[in-house]
Amino acid sequence: MQLSLGELAQRLGAELIGDADTVIRGVNTLKDATATDVSFLANSSYRSQLPDSNAGAVIVSAKEAADVRGAALVVANPYLSFALVTQMFDNRPQPVRGIHPSAVVAASATLGDDVCIAANVVIGEHCVIGDGCEIGANTVISDHCVLGRDCCLRANVTLYHDVVLGERVQVHSGTVIGADGFGFAPDKGRWHKIAQLGGVRIGNDVDIGANTCIDRGALGNTTIEDHVIVDNLVQVAHNVRLGEGTAMAGNSGVAGSTTIGKHCTIAGGAGIAGHLALADGVHVAAMTLISKSISESGAYATGTAQMPMQEWRRSATRFRQLDSMAKRLQQLEKSHEGKA
Amino acid sequence: MQLSLGELAQRLGAELIGDADTVIRGVNTLKDATATDVSFLANSSYRSQLPDSNAGAVIVSAKEAADVRGAALVVANPYLSFALVTQMFDNRPQPVRGIHPSAVVAASATLGDDVCIAANVVIGEHCVIGDGCEIGANTVISDHCVLGRDCCLRANVTLYHDVVLGERVQVHSGTVIGADGFGFAPDKGRWHKIAQLGGVRIGNDVDIGANTCIDRGALGNTTIEDHVIVDNLVQVAHNVRLGEGTAMAGNSGVAGSTTIGKHCTIAGGAGIAGHLALADGVHVAAMTLISKSISESGAYATGTAQMPMQEWRRSATRFRQLDSMAKRLQQLEKSHEGKA
Amino acid sequence: MQLSLGELAQRLGAELIGDADTVIRGVNTLKDATATDVSFLANSSYRSQLPDSNAGAVIVSAKEAADVRGAALVVANPYLSFALVTQMFDNRPQPVRGIHPSAVVAASATLGDDVCIAANVVIGEHCVIGDGCEIGANTVISDHCVLGRDCCLRANVTLYHDVVLGERVQVHSGTVIGADGFGFAPDKGRWHKIAQLGGVRIGNDVDIGANTCIDRGALGNTTIEDHVIVDNLVQVAHNVRLGEGTAMAGNSGVAGSTTIGKHCTIAGGAGIAGHLALADGVHVAAMTLISKSISESGAYATGTAQMPMQEWRRSATRFRQLDSMAKRLQQLEKSHEGKA
């Protein structure tokens, strides 16, 4: 893969300051880029690296273009342009078109054109796999699933029955979609299973990481709207709804029947309790527990800030005494007022 | 699947208020139910939906029966009856009996009657698979495992060697049972592995979610007693014991050699440190860290409550000053007493 | 497997106090050991079990040798010697050498001597599998991966393309190495994927647990140095570096581009934010969130200590008022000073 700076500028809609014939063969950081790499400046804290970078060209915004030593590709949103460039130089080995002879595909399944079905894939009865879909090795798709066009399930993914994906949905390895929600009725010390009768509905352009779980609904579906992105090891419980464009980072989780609005960001390790509603544009900080509904957009947090262990122990001990401290403070104030 | 209200009442031991001949074809929420659905009221916060529900019948307790617009199925525990009804209307595609030709089953393995062994399953030497067991596609069962009757392992499950399951154990996809516990002896900056010589013993009627890990014991077994339920992405370390009827929710974890009593509930994202003992009937709140043993039943928590980020920052800053604040408060009190 | 105490003492470099001809057939805890078992005392809190132990021999340090009822194996580091003994008595079923006929191995892949390739394994184009490697059933190794000698991947592991493992690397089931990092550029409410062009480089003698995720780099590699140990359900994001001898326990996670030094320990459920640097010898407590870089070795923590729920509620309420409390305390002090 190689592109001239002229071609690159055209594809990005960038203003090129430099030689349009320079050949670019890759993309790299300011620090590691060589003369045949394009680099980028999207975070001003890396600005000090501009003068020393050997990059063949740097993607920058207008206000930083003057600082670029070599060629500059001037754009409105450098990080977006960087994303587009990485896609141009994507070096992932391409899967083989067709159905590997070891795959086990039910006779009642319908496969679209130009699909790639890798070794040991299992596809159940009445599945519909859209045109251009890629199914990685050892992935299992259970009965009655529907995949829109150009979906990509990597190796060792599991889809339970009645899971419907839109178009261009990416699912990474180890992820399980449609397992039973955690629903049980307690009675006399035993748990009686609530059969999970719903399914999972995932929109278009959704990207789901590795070893993540998206459970099927108990009654009705678990729903993930268009343009949602979900990282690794994320728990999405039954009957949850994730609004359009929302992002959930690694190790986060959301409990049953909670609705998260559009364009929310749930940071790593955060947890959202069940049966809540979060408004659009809510940002939950890392390792925060949300236990009440949120009706206003904005950022929310729980927890404390990092401390050396010895100091933390003292604060943690005092936290247990906080109510007493508050009452003693009130007492002093009262007594002080009495004297004033 | 369809049932008359008369049959349904009989199966649930319910008192029917309404027409016994009404035909029910499904189960749904109060809000979404139609005339051929049965619904339920188990949580009084949904009581306001009763008058508007179009459900063909509603499962309720005696004290709410009068509010049901149509037919009512009156029972002592509506949530339990709802669970039983979902089981009646379970629509999961049934697995195919027999052994798929692509499965790789060791000659020394013993398979019970009426088993379902799906495509690409691998079963190791000397395994014993009980009558009626269902093993999902691409699942691996290593040597010397024993499954009691009517166990169900979904697709892409992994059992290491010497894992013993009781009867009616459910294991969801991606779950790994019997991997090595995290045991290493440090010496001169290196970690020396402690071979994990124990196994895993799981009782009857245990339900385990997706992408969960239950490690084998170092010496002796990791033990899960009867009627335990475990959600997705849960970590159960080596030599843990989970007491009868205990529940662990998603993203929770328990470290090595800890014993959890009977009928405990560990909420989502909670963590229990190693080498502890928790009494029966302990309830651990979401995202709580338990670092000391608990000898009395009851609910326990750590952490703080959610706040808008700006306010949280101020409290978090003060938390670091708590010990100083406490000492200054004492000083003021002392000085005040001196004057009084 | 059996060893005389004389042989055992020789292998461990231990001083034997007892009969060298005593035969040992296993290893067990002080409490459960019988006359043919060797046991150990590595944690002084178990010292009270010494007098009652029926162990055939006990591994102890010199200062506790006098308390052993039967034979003693006296060593400098009993826990290390225990680790070595468990390795001697490891009873894991040995994998079958050779390539199972159901495995799908690309013609361009190179397999070393004495490899074990189990059923339904898939190995991609141009992979190089070192001598003595063991690949468990249903594991998928994508194109261009390199495994050093004596690596062991258990069942249902997934390696994406361009993942390089050193020698003697252990990877447990369900773990995914090389999935795409969670990198997206936001623009007008949509996420534009940053193709993840880097790979993963893992050193020698690394041990990785089950259902863990180690993402590939965006530009450049995610790097795990020699002698690192990683537990189950751990998230290692793109472009992270884990320094030599570092340990990460279950359910912990580290976000993108963070560098963790050598010989650090990250306890269970802890989270490390992105773009940070942690010095060598940093210890992060369980369920702690590290959100700033750490330049000095030592232990760090966040959070609060466990409390009964009712008491916790009062402290949590006061935490929200902490800034106000601090200001009122200052006010009182000021007023007090004014009077003094």
UniProtKB/TrEMBL annotation, chains A, B, C:
<keyword id="KW-0443">Lipid metabolism</keyword>
<keyword id="KW-0444">Lipid biosynthesis</keyword>
<keyword id="KW-0441">Lipid A biosynthesis</keyword>
<dbReference type="InterPro" id="IPR011004">
    <property type="entry name" value="Trimer_LpxA-like_sf"/>
</dbReference>
<dbReference type="GO" id="GO:0009245">
    <property type="term" value="P:lipid A biosynthetic process"/>
</dbReference>
<feature type="active site" description="Proton acceptor">
    <location>
        <position position="238"/>
    </location>
</feature>
<keyword id="KW-0677">Repeat</keyword>
<keyword id="KW-0808">Transferase</keyword>
<feature type="domain" description="UDP-3-O-[3-hydroxymyristoyl] glucosamine N-acyltransferase non-repeat region">
    <location>
        <begin position="21"/>
        <end position="87"/>
    </location>
</feature>
<dbReference type="Pfam" id="PF25087">
    <property type="entry name" value="GMPPB_C"/>
</dbReference>
<protein>
    <recommendedName>
        <fullName>UDP-3-O-acylglucosamine N-acyltransferase</fullName>
        <ecNumber>2.3.1.191</ecNumber>
    </recommendedName>
</protein>
<dbReference type="InterPro" id="IPR020573">
    <property type="entry name" value="UDP_GlcNAc_AcTrfase_non-rep"/>
</dbReference>
<dbReference type="InterPro" id="IPR007691">
    <property type="entry name" value="LpxD"/>
</dbReference>
<dbReference type="GO" id="GO:0016410">
    <property type="term" value="F:N-acyltransferase activity"/>
</dbReference>
<comment type="pathway">
    <text>Bacterial outer membrane biogenesis; LPS lipid A biosynthesis.</text>
</comment>
<dbReference type="InterPro" id="IPR056729">
    <property type="entry name" value="GMPPB_C"/>
</dbReference>
<dbReference type="Pfam" id="PF04613">
    <property type="entry name" value="LpxD"/>
</dbReference>
<feature type="domain" description="Mannose-1-phosphate guanyltransferase C-terminal">
    <location>
        <begin position="99"/>
        <end position="177"/>
    </location>
</feature>
<comment type="subunit">
    <text>Homotrimer.</text>
</comment>
<dbReference type="GO" id="GO:0016020">
    <property type="term" value="C:membrane"/>
</dbReference>
<keyword id="KW-0012">Acyltransferase</keyword>
<comment type="function">
    <text>Catalyzes the N-acylation of UDP-3-O-acylglucosamine using 3-hydroxyacyl-ACP as the acyl donor. Is involved in the biosynthesis of lipid A, a phosphorylated glycolipid that anchors the lipopolysaccharide to the outer membrane of the cell.</text>
</comment>
<dbReference type="InterPro" id="IPR018357">
    <property type="entry name" value="Hexapep_transf_CS"/>
</dbReference>
<dbReference type="GO" id="GO:0103118">
    <property type="term" value="F:UDP-3-O-[(3R)-3-hydroxyacyl]-glucosamine N-acyltransferase activity"/>
</dbReference>
<comment type="similarity">
    <text>Belongs to the transferase hexapeptide repeat family. LpxD subfamily.</text>
</comment>
